[in-house]
Write a structure and sequence with these properties.
Layout (H helix, E strand, L loop, with lengths): L4 H16 L6 H10 L1 H8 L9 E7 L2 E5 L8 E7 L2 E11 L2 E6 L11 E6 L3 E4 L7 E2 L16 E4 L16 E2 L4 H6 L2 E2 L3 E6 L5 H11 L4 E9 L1 H11 L2 H4 L2 E7 L4 H20 L3 E7 L1 H14 L11 H11 L3 E2 L4 E9 L8 H9 L2 E4 L2 H5 L12 E2 L2 H4 L2 H19 L1 H6 L8 H6 L3 H8 L9 H16 L18 H7 L18
Parallel strand pairs: 8-14, 12-17, 12-18, 13-14, 13-15, 15-17
Antiparallel strand pairs: 1-2, 1-6, 2-5, 3-4, 3-6, 4-5, 7-9, 10-11, 16-17, 18-19
């Protein structure tokens, strides 16, 4: 039995209307749209509840909130309804079966069982605009200096992928810091990542202030993580100075704030530095300190149930640090030169966290407490500090000058106990006889006032004068030898690797060498 023509036409119109009707989005698609545009959704539905998916608070375990009833990816941001138009922001740090683990960004006071939890953003953001220079903000971009919030802000994600290794330009330009002990003995390259290792009260923050004033950079971004509230204003006003503040952006999370905020502060400062770097500028990034950052992440990881490892640090700390440090450096558009302070426990530079960071960074400036106790500032140990890129940014002649001074200092340090006790007999070591009277001279050269700054040319000229005064006494000092004909020094070999093979120096065979 066939259809009547009129019935067939009606059936065709009905099926066409069903085919043209858009399909209803699935629950994951609704969640994605909701998280992408929560404000637009709220404006669209008016007084209706904009949250299609929500969960409830079940348990509070220290600084960890456990919620159930809603899916949310790790790293996303949620908001907890405290009632009376009050909200508490929290970050998803893990999940267990149907429970979601949240780290609050503020104090969990006021949290009650059964309170609703709503997804808010896929990841934390910080408000950025080019007019942030001279401002002091929190990890979210809100001003802390009492001035109005900047206009035309753009939220940027605080998590970002580092520049691809093969796209990074080679670091071959020296960076003048204005500090003689760094510019001559530990020359830094533009785009290098350097750690400042020291115990408490040895002068890390003072050295950061000298770097912020002396380094020739377009923009300076400072991240103060876990600092004492009293020291924040003192550092930003006294150590930086009025002239330097005009090119500085400061991101602050004091020690009384939550672990989530302290972790965000370091990432927000790095994200802001990346924005200025992508504008073609040279950025100086100062983070104080990585130790407090690691402690904050340790607090979050242990609360989430991670297994502690060395010194109680969970695996998330060891994976977070390289991901953060690799974001600094060179890029096809601009550069980020970064200095990170590391608070070493018990003045032990080989403690696990410091040793791990030493392997990740491009150089280390070790501050010695014994030098600081004698009023030697900056208390940089010239023998235990290291710049991995110094031989790439200075000439062989300057490298030889620095090596001669280090050799003289090392010779004096080897016999310092005998010299101080008066047990050393002059004449037993001719090289040491030349070094001993020059010890006050190199100490004066390596010391510097907090408000002093020297150009790199002036620093190298003063070092040349110091070395000349040592060698004018009639005998070469250690490190100032002449290579025998037909041989090559280690420095010559290091520099020859940058030349084509046909330009390498010829070395005699081991059997034919005299």
């Amino acid at each position: 039995m066939g259809f009547y023509p009129a019935a067939a036409e009606g059936y065709a119109e009905m099926t066409k209307a069903l085919a043209d009707k858009p399909s209803r989005p699935s629950l994951p698609q609704q969640l994605h749209r909701m998280l992408e545009h929560p404000v637009r959704l709220h404006q669209k539905v008016g007084s209706l509840d904009p949250w299609v998916v929500q969960g409830t608070i079940e348990t509070v375990r220290g600084n960890l909130l456990i919620a159930s009833g809603f899916p949310a990816p790790i790293g996303s941001v949620c908001r907890i309804d405290l009632g009376h138009h009050r909200w508490l922001e929290a970050e998803v740090v893990g999940f267990q079966q149907d429970q979601t683990l949240l780290s609050p960004c503020e104090s969990p006071l006021g949290i009650q069982p059964g309170q609703s939890v709503h997804p808010w953003r896929f990841q934390p953001t910080v408000d950025f605009c080019p007019s942030l220079l001279g401002r002091i903000i929190d990890p979210s971009g809100r001003p802390l200096d009492g001035l109005p919030a900047p206009s035309y802000i753009t939220p940027i994600a605080i998590e970002a992928a580092p520049v691809a290794p093969m796209l990074r330009p080679v670091i071959d330009q020296p960076l003048a810091t204005g500090i003689r002990a760094i510019d001559t003995l530990q020359t830094i390259g533009r785009g290098q990542r350097v750690g400042i290792l020291a115990g408490a009260g040895v002068g890390k923050t003072t050295l950061l202030g000298m770097l912020a004033r002396g380094v020739q950079a377009d923009v300076v971004v400072i991240g103060l993580i876990g600092e004492r509230g009293r020291e924040v204003k003192e550092f930003l006003q006294q150590d930086l100075g009025v002239n330097s503040q005009q090119r500085v952006v400061s991101v602050v999370a004091t020690s009384d704030q939550s672990a989530c905020q302290r972790v965000r502060a370091a990432k927000s400062a790095t994200a802001i530095a990346e924005q200025y770097r992508d504008q073609g500028k040279h950025v100086l990034l100062l983070i104080d300190s990585l130790t407090r950052l690691a402690m904050a992440q340790r607090e979050i990881g242990l609360a989430a149930g991670e297994i502690p490892m060395a010194r109680g640090y969970p695996p998330s700390v060891l994976s977070m640090l390289p991901a953060l440090l690799e974001r600094a450096g060179t890029s096809p558009r601009g550069t980020i030169t970064a200095f990170y302070t590391v608070l070493i426990e018990g003045d032990d530079p080989n403690e696990p966290l410091a040793d791990h960071l030493r392997s990740l960074l491009d150089g280390v400036l070790l501050l010695d407490r014994s030098l600081a106790a004698r009023g030697h500032f900056p208390a940089i140990d010239p023998l235990k500090s290291l710049s991995r890129l110094m031989d790439s940014v200075v000439s062989p002649e300057k490298m030889a000058l620095a090596q001669r001074l280090r050799a003289a200092i090392a010779l004096y340090k080897d016999h310092e106990d005998l010299i101080q006790m008066g047990a050393y007999s002059p004449g037993s070591n001719p090289a040491l006889d030349l070094v001993v009277p020059m010890e006050p001279l190199w100490n004066r050269f390596l010391q510097q006032g907090r408000n002093e700054s020297f150009s790199m040319e002036e620093s190298w000229r003063q070092l040349q004068q110091l070395i000349d005064s040592l060698e004018q006494q009639g005998a070469p000092i250690p490190g100032s030898f002449e290579p025998r004909p037909g041989s090559a020094t280690q420095q010559d070999l290091r520099w020859s690797r940058r030349l084509p093979p046909d330009a390498w120096p010829e070395l005699p065979d081991r059997e034919s060498a005299p």
